[in-house]
Known about the structure:
Elements: H1 2-13, H2 16-27, E1 32-35, H3 43-46, E2 53-55, H4 61-68, E3 73-78, E4 89-93, E5 96-102, H5 103-108
Parallel strand pairs: 1-2, 1-3
Antiparallel strand pairs: 3-5, 4-5
Amino acid sequence: SHLVLMPMLKTSFNIEAVSKKLGAWESQGISLANLNKYHGQFHFLGRLQKPIAVIGNLDPDMKVWIHENPTGKAVSYQYTLPSNAKPVYVQRYKGKYITIWDAKTMREHPNIARRN
């Protein structure tokens, strides 16, 4: 029965694709942030060189980051996907979604990236 679950588990727990996406954005000079806690999980696989900003813990840090990084992208972890806007990247991960939002969408929909 483990063999049947392997493809699902492999995709559900694999962060290589999202890490490489973040690395590509970083190499283009795009600022990156992570909502709430960041444990360094994307740095190795994405070959990231710079720290990822952690936002969403203390008001008004998210608004400040969005204002200072108008082309930035922020990683969020959500149980359901909002219907009023689309993330620039979405992937199933451990029973929830890894979503990446651009700063413009976060400015237009202030709570879009919050964990739900």
